[in-house]
Design goal:
This protein has about 210 residues and is α/β, with parallel strands linked by helices. Helices cover about 25% and strands about 35% of the residues. The chain has a single domain, classed as Vaccinia Virus protein VP39 (Rossmann fold, 3-Layer(aba) Sandwich), CATH 3.40.50. Strand 6, helix 3 and strand 7 form a beta-alpha-beta unit. Keywords: Polyamine biosynthesis.
């Protein structure tokens, strides 16, 4: 049985938070976006990126989601300061004060975490901040974006912008629900070192993670 817990007009359209048994789901404009059933690949996105960076990494997480990536970053001994950029205030509220808070053990209250309510593409264009690890989980993949504007991040100009926000030796991590060979090719043309991981899921194609070092 599925229960709708909240429905809001988000910046990218209608957002719905619902409960399905013991799990939560987020639906955007009628399209499934995320849930709390697994989260293995979301956790690996930040933990592998942190493993690739020496010392205490300053990490940017693009997209708060259900908080799995943030929790994994906080639990990793190689991560220090964390900046989370999330454009939907409802998602922040569901994680900070709502039912998603217990999913990640109130991760947003940790003093190492700064939450920025902003569109990631626009924020990256105007910020001068740099990071040791930059982890993107704002879409279902480079060719399956939540909004058309996000598609720019995965093209040559977007990858150049992401590279500029990395410190020397920094790592870019990207999450996808599907393999995208054309995106992998663009990554390899821009970054000197690219690693691709495929993470099996209970149904459908494996999730895919890319890690690219500047």
């Amino acid at each position: 049985m599925t229960d709708v817990l909240d429905t809001v007009a988000g910046k990218s359209g209608e957002l719905v938070l619902r409960r399905a048994g013991d799990d939560f789901e987020v639906i955007a404009n009628g399209v499934f976006l995320m849930d709390t059933r697994n989260g293995e690949s979301e956790r690996l996105l930040v933990s592998v990126a942190a493993d690739l960076v020496p010392g205490k990494a300053r990490m940017l997480i693009g997209g708060l989601g259900v908080g799995y990536s943030l929790r994994a970053a906080l639990d990793h001994p190689g991560v220090g300061e964390i900046v989370v950029v999330e454009r939907e205030p409802a998602v922040i509220g569901w994680n900070r004060e709502g039912p998603l808070r217990d999913v990640h053990g109130d991760a947003l209250s940790d003093e190492r975490v700064t939450v920025v309510e902003a569109d990631l593409v626009k924020w990256l264009r105007r910020t001068e901040e740099r990071f040791d690890a930059l982890c993107l989980d704002i879409d279902n993949g480079p060719e399956w974006t939540v909004t058309d504007g996000n598609a720019k991040l995965y093209q040559e100009d977007g990858l150049d912008m992401l590279a500029e926000r990395l410190r020397p030796g920094g790592v870019l991590g990207v999450w996808s629900a599907e393999s995208v060979p054309s995106f992998a090719k663009r990554l390899r043309a821009r970054f000197g070192e690219v690693r691709e991981l495929k993470i099996p899921v209970p149904q459908g194609e494996p999730d895919v993670l890319w890690f690219a070092r500047r």
